[in-house]
Design brief:
It contains 26 helices and 20 strands. It is an alpha+beta fold and about 675 residues long. It binds 2-(butylsulfanyl)adenosine (IVH).
């Protein structure tokens, strides 16, 4: 097969597998086989970028860096829906429609997805643009990020119109959201408050590879075309499935056609009760007149269509008594105030505690012990205290005085200017900070030490055997065996777990150290860039911020971590114990040989630093050359490139790649 044909074949094949997996939920190929095909395509595209399709599945892995999003006018304005909060208003909506057009009215009931609205333009079966809502007239072009969402087809099949828009909602599935928050907690970063805002923040990120890693999903709910080939909305939504779209599931009752107000109410009641079982959040139900002609007849007000209405669920709230405010100390020393509530049933779970976040929040709510408070769970995972019922406040009530000393070790708390959180500064002697740090260190995604759990850490600490992670590697059989619940086998397991952890790669060891703001992804970036711990320790803040995606906040945190002699001495002891503090170069080299033997010239100004770009070339087996010659294989071309260089490259017929093209091809 010719290379060009092979690229076309692989592109089509992989797009079909993606569709099977992400839209139809049935896969006919193993992950391994899929990865092999993808790799083959990536390599062919690097060698022959001229044959690569703009909608290649290799773009799904992200890598396009767009600094500011361009604003682009919507082809069809993105209107909003009029909202209603009561069933009477829905009744009135139906009466209004009857009066305006009369006759038999079919309605389509749908979920109101709580995410970010998106409008996606397809031309000749290819995804060409994705815009956020913006002001409804113009939106931001977030195409590179939207391409990474697997539920959105890049290339269509079947009999589609030449040009049309699909509208939908990008949602953060709850499972992926919870996982992201767990990872953030592990990195000592503040957790995200809710899936909607996080989806909205994610879709506007500069680095699409991060977007790709977050697992966003999309529900496409409406087709917009100059000439809509379908009689009604319901038919349209169900038919576009054949073109490759993931539209709301009929089988799961996400969408239903009804022909009476009773049918509408039944749908509303069903989802009011069942919405907590959905894998994503919704905030209501949308009711639309089905027939497209009738929609046209009804038309629009200045803000919204007359043929549709949203019924918004009331967030479930209950009142209960706040028994006590307690304070937790995290591994970084951060203090979190917690409301201990009189247990109460809410949205199917018993709520006993709620996060009060920080001193400012307590002051804002003016919340006090023994107050009656309203707790809300708008389908969200974490219950929230919304307000205090002041009418029920006991007479003898006194304002809450935020603690001044650590509830665990008594140290005076500090609050850094501009930060919301109070901290206990006694990092080397405060019990929950010590055990918290060690628990983080042994975590599954860090050192993954088998045979050592949270309880054992506390036990070892209380027995005076460990005060930091380095102490773990000095433990002996004789020291551990006398402890309660320890048998020969469990001691041996623990010691073996510690021994095995010495093979854990550098990036995980770096994550395990528990440097504030250094989570899994940042640790990987730092490890790859600096290659060993000594280079990282020696790095200045300027050098740190030169690394892609590392900002001032992380740089400062890394710097101050290694300025603490205690931390450096722990690192040195861990090094002596035999842990990995260098990048495994052999593994790293093998990651890709996509540019093996290629001579590449980098010229001009880029989004990423030129140094990073050169390192990237080396890590994929390529050679950086300084000037263009007949031996040059590629020219990676940035802004403001000199005209003479450009002319020379053109004359020699050298393949030129933009930064985006280059990165996307490397995946
Ligand atoms: S139809 C002109 N259907 O709700 C009507 N919108 O205020 C266009 N939304 O931000 C909207 N689920 O993104 C429609 N099933 C659904 C929806 C839905 C969520 C969002 C939409 C927009 C807002 C409308």
């Amino acid at each position: 097969m010719e290379i060009k044909e092979r690229i076309a074949f692989l592109t089509k094949e992989l797009n079909q597998h993606n569709h099977n997996y992400y839209v139809l939920n049935k896969s006919v190929i193993s992950d391994y086989d899929f990865d092999m095909l993808l790799k083959e395509l990536q390599e062919l595209e690097v060698k022959h970028p001229e044959y690569a399709f703009p909608n290649s599945p290799t773009k799904r892995v992200g890598g396009d860096i767009t600094k500011n999003f361009e604003t682009v006018a919507h082809r069809f304005p993105m209107l909003s829906l009029s909202n209603s909060y009561s069933k009477e208003e829905i009744q009135e909506f139906d009466e209004r429609i009857q009066k305006l057009i009369g006759g038999e009215i079919e309605y389509v009931c749908e979920l109101k997805y709580d995410g970010v609205a998106i409008s996606i333009t397809y031309e000749n079966g290819e995804l060409v643009r994705a815009l956020t809502r913006g002001d409804g007239i113009e939106g931001e072009d977030v195409t590179a990020n939207v391409r990474t969402i697997r539920a959105i087809p890049l290339k269509l099949q079947g009999d589609y119109p030449e040009s049309f828009d699909m509208r939908g909602e990008i949602v953060f599935p709850l499972a992926a959201f919870n996982q992201l928050n767990q990872e953030r907690e592990a990195a000592g970063e503040p957790i995200f408050a809710n899936p909607r805002n996080t989806a909205s923040g994610t879709i506007k990120m500069q680095d699409s590879s991060i977007v790709a890693s977050r697992g966003l999903d999309c529900q496409l709910y409406q087709l917009y075309a100059d000439v809509n080939p379908f009689e009604g909305h319901f038919e349209a939504v169900n038919s576009v499935k054949d073109w490759g779209f993931k539209t709301p599931s009929l089988a799961d009752n996400y969408i239903k056609k009804v022909n009476s107000i009773e049918g509408i109410m039944e749908f509303i009641n069903y989802w009011d009760e069942k919405r907590s079982e959905l894998p994503f959040e919704i905030d209501g139900i949308v009711i639309k007149v089905n027939n497209h002609h009738k929609q046209q007849e009804l038309g629009f007000t200045s803000k919204s269509p007359r043929w549709a209405i949203a019924y918004k669920f009331k967030a479930e709230r209950v009142s209960t008594v706040l028994n006590e405010i307690t304070y937790q100390v995290g591994r970084t020393g951060a203090i979190t105030p917690v409301a201990n509530l009189e247990p109460v049933q809410l949205a199917g779970t018993t709520v006993k505690r709620a996060n009060l976040h920080n001193a400012d929040q307590i002051e804002k709510l003016d919340i006090r012990e023994k107050d009656t408070v309203y707790v809300e769970k708008g389908g969200e995972i974490i219950p929230k205290i919304i307000e205090v019922d002041f009418s029920k406040r006991p007479k003898e009530s006194e304002p809450t005085v935020y603690i001044k000393h650590c509830p665990e070790c008594g140290s005076e708390l500090v609050r850094v200017e501009g930060e919301a959180q109070h901290y206990c500064p006694n990092s080397s002697n405060c019990k929950p900070q010590i055990t918290g740090k060690i628990e983080h260190f042994i975590g599954r995604k860090m050192m993954n030490i088998d045979g050592l759990g949270v309880e054992t850490v506390v036990q070892l600490f209380e027995a005076g055997l460990i005060k930091n992670s380095a102490d773990l590697y000095d433990l002996t059989f004789e020291q551990i065996e006398p402890l309660e619940r320890m048998a020969e086998k469990s001691v041996n397991n623990l010691l073996k777990g510690l021994e095995d952890s010495k093979k854990v790669p550098f990036e995980k060891v770096l994550f395990a150290l528990g440097i504030r703001y250094v989570g899994e992804t940042v640790a990987k970036k730092l490890a790859k860039y600096f290659r060993n711990i000594d280079a990282l320790i020696a790095a200045s803040e300027e050098e740190l911020v030169a690394v892609d995606e590392i900002g001032g906040r992380i740089a400062e945190s890394v710097k101050s971590f290694f300025e603490d002699e205690m931390n450096v001495s722990i690192v040195n002891r861990l090094k002596t114990a035999g842990l990995q503090f260098e990048l495994d170069e052999t593994e790293h080299q093998q990651q890709s040989a996509a540019l093996e033997g290629k001579s590449i010239v980098v010229s001009g100004v880029f989004e990423m630093s030129r140094n990073d770009l050169k390192k990237l070339i080396e890590s994929h087996g390529g050679k950086n050359a300084s000037s263009i010659s007949s031996k040059t294989d590629y020219l990676v071309r940035g802004d403001k490139m000199g005209p003479s260089k450009l002319a020379k490259a053109e004359k020699l017929g050298i393949t030129m790649l933009s930064e985006q093209e280059f990165l996307a091809l490397l995946g």
